[in-house]
Amino acid sequence: MEISYSAAVWMVLLTSFMWGFWHQFVKRISSWPLPAFMIWMFTSGALVVWGCILAFQGSMVPEGILTAIGGAREYALLAVVCGAGFAIGMQIQLYVVSKMGLIYSTSVVSTSSILLGTLFSSILGGIPEDTSFVKILFGALILLAATLTCQRAGVEKDRHLRVPNETIRRNSRKYLLILLAYLIFFSQSYTIGMSVSVRTDLRPNGLPGPVAVGMLAVGAAAAVWIVCGAMLLRKGELRLLCRPGKPVCFLYAVVGGVCCLGGDLLHNIASPVVSVAIAWPLSNLSGVWQYFWGILSGEFRGAGRRAKVLLGVGMSLFVLGVIWLALARYGN
């Protein structure tokens, strides 16, 4: 599928919106178990991804799906394994979102995601000749500054609302350890899988981007059915898989699947054009959207002026970093 560089940049930015949009649903599913939501979300997302691949096979995979997979079996297997790691890691992150909110989770995860993701995608995916690692790293550092500023805004908010320090430390320490486990073992599964398995000018024997996402979606759905199904079975909640507290929860799960895995599909169509090394940090604009939805859900209600100013500065830095990365190849 041939697209221009500017169109690819806009596709990555749309992906960032999709990735940042669906996390809010975790706070809206009421008493419906999170594992049940995850099963429906990843299953519907996988069906949508493969539906798109089959519908547009002629332009997305002109050589044919089976031929593409058969010619890159090791990359297909890697994508499936990384998809499983991605889904398990997402389960951990969403658990923290359900307990501590979007802003807390995003501020911690983005710090590692921006730096490690940029490093892995640059090393494994390669850097185009018309840009440099220094340029990409500088953009990533702007995004890191944005994340740290937003973290500080959260601290100022808690101070203004007089949340007891011991309560903050106890909750933060517990969920920080959970997030660190996610960061160490699972956070880069998506980046590694897509950086290594997707066909680019630097890796011509890889999988077409859409097929790589399709294999990742298969691994993610399989892992979710195994892990989340076991969790529901252990707690005696398997019957709740098809019985959400509110019927709209099904819609949340389906839209979440479209945004999560459908966003992956858009991202991987655009990544070979923009380059994986630029597309990954650029897509971290999703952090801005997660902050935005966190604000709308009331996570900063009653915060003082200083906290709001810091949050505004942090979100502005996110936008600046995205603009820098979007133009990283135009100046050459």
Q: What labels describe this entry?
A:
single chain, 332 residues, mainly alpha, 14 helices
Would you spell out the secondary-structure blueprint of this structure?
Layout lengths: L4 H17 L12 H22 L1 H4 L4 H6 L2 H28 L1 H24 L7 H28 L4 H21 L3 H9 L11 H26 L13 H27 L1 H8 L2 H11 L8 H22 L6
Can you give a write-up of this model?
The chain is an all-alpha fold. It has one domain (5-326). 76% of the residues lie in helices and 0% in strands. It is built from 14 helices and no strands. Helix 1 (5-21) runs antiparallel to helix 11. The two termini are 25 Å apart.
Give a brief outline of the structure.
It is built from 14 helices and no strands. The chain starts with a helix and ends in a 6-residue tail after the last helix. It is globular.
Mean pLDDT: 78
Helix content: over 70%
**Whole-number total of structural domains:** 1
Multimerization state:
single chain
Number of DSSP helices? 14
Topology, number of strands: 0
**Beta fraction:** under 5%
**Largest sheet: number of strands, sense, barrel closure:** none
Radius of gyration: 20 Å
Distance between the termini: 25 Å
Judged by helices, strands and strand pairing, the structural class is mainly alpha
What would the principal axes of the Cα set say about the shape?
globular
SSE pattern, N- to C-terminal: HHHHHHHHHHHHHH
Give start-end ranges of low-pLDDT stretches.
165-169
